[in-house]
């Protein structure tokens, strides 16, 4: 065969080989729908950890990028190379990433996969962020709790005595922090000079505190120029409604104690309601 003919045959063969070579397969990407992984329009509380997941296919996949943003502000940028997968001709991949951000409103999450041929595929979806229910209650509150009710005494050798009182002030400072649960607050309540641990549960703009036990000294008028200041075991059952920066108090206060005066002894009971407000600083 002549050289010219051989050369032409080789050229034709190379052209046929080139025309038979398959085009690269473009990658695909989608949201990973699995337990514990956020999906389209999921609700996430600000400051809570969320897990982002993507799945898809790629021919010799090389890297994945994940961007968490809101109105052009990037909260988190994460990229990872598929170094151990570059020699895989075609792969079904699963990838997840954990992140914690502070945000309120719609947040966009975008995942992009790139293969060894430079081809890319992207998927974006929205996650809705809300402030934790307990976040609005975090802070320091100060003011007066107002106690209104009746003190009843029963002392041996004396007639029972009732004293009605209204809006008796008890200076109070409430310091609250977020609890471990999204609807939980914990902290301390200082009444006069006594500091007590407190725990509450939030629903809407109202926090309901677990019963608070206290021991107070309460001046009591027995009449006839006599008064006593016994110690009273008190239990407060309180709810607080947040109105802007004012925590409005509502609840009950019950107590009991012993009286000893001269040669007399007896008991007393207190039954009252709690009102007033504390201002958030």
Whole-number tally of structural domains: 2
Number of helices: 1
Oligomeric composition of the shown chains: single chain
User: Total strand count, please?
Assistant: 19
Major sheet: arrangement of strands: 9-10-11-12-13-17-18-19
Strand content: over 45%
Question: Spans with pLDDT under 50 lasting ≥5 residues?
Answer: 1-14
State the order of secondary-structure elements, H for helix, E for strand. Answer: HEEEEEEEEEEEEEEEEEEE
Features:
Immunoglobulin-like; rod-shaped; 281 residues; 2 domains; 6% helix; five-stranded mixed sheet; disordered N terminus; single chain; eight-stranded antiparallel beta barrel; mainly beta
How does this structure look, described?
The structure is a single chain. With 281 residues, the protein is mainly β. The protein has two domains: 23-130, Immunoglobulin-like; 135-280. Helices cover 6% and strands 66% of the residues. It has one helix and 19 strands. The strands form four sheets. An eight-stranded antiparallel barrel has the order 9-10-11-12-13-17-18-19. The longest helix is centred in the N-terminal third of the chain and has 18 residues, at 3-20. The radius of gyration is 36 Å and the shape is rod-shaped.
List the helices and strands and how they pair.
Layout lengths: L2 H18 L7 E4 L10 E4 L3 E10 L2 E10 L2 E9 L9 E10 L4 E11 L4 E11 L8 E17 L5 E18 L5 E8 L2 E10 L2 E4 L2 E6 L2 E4 L2 E3 L2 E13 L2 E16 L2 E17 L1
Briefly summarize what is shown.
The chain has 281 residues and is mainly beta. It contains one helix and 19 strands. A hairpin with a 2-residue loop joins strand 17 (231-243) and strand 18.
């Amino acid at each position: 065969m002549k050289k010219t003919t051989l050369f032409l045959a080789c050229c034709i063969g190379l052209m046929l080989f080139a025309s038979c070579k398959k085009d690269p397969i473009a990658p695909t990407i989608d949201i990973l729908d699995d337990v514990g992984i956020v999906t389209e329009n999921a609700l996430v509380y600000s400051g809570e950890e969320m897990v982002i997941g993507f799945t898809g296919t790629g021919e010799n996949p090389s890297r994945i990028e994940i961007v968490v943003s809101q109105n052009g502000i990037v909260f988190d940028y994460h990229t990872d190379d598929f170094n151990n997968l570059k020699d895989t001709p075609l792969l079904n991949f699963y990838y997840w990433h954990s992140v914690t951000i502070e945000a309120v409103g719609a947040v966009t999450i975008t995942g992009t996969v790139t293969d060894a041929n430079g081809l890319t595929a992207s998927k974006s979806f929205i996650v809705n962020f809300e402030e934790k229910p307990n976040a609005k209650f975090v802070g320091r509150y100060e003011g007066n709790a107002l106690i209104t009710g009746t003190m009843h005494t029963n002392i041996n050798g004396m007639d029972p005595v009732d004293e009605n009182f209204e809006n008796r002030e008890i200076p109070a400072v409430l310091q609250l922090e977020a609890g471990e649960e999204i609807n939980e607050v914990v902290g301390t309540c200082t009444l006069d000079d006594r500091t007590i641990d407190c725990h509450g549960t939030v629903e809407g703009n109202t926090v309901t505190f677990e019963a608070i036990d206290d021991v107070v000294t309460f001046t009591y008028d027995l009449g006839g120029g006599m008064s006593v200041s016994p110690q009273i075991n008190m239990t407060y059952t309180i709810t607080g409604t947040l109105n802007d920066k004012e925590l409005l108090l509502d609840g009950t206060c019950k107590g009991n104690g012993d009286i000893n005066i001269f040669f007399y002894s007896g008991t007393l009971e207190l039954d009252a309601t709690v009102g007033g407000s504390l201002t958030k600083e």
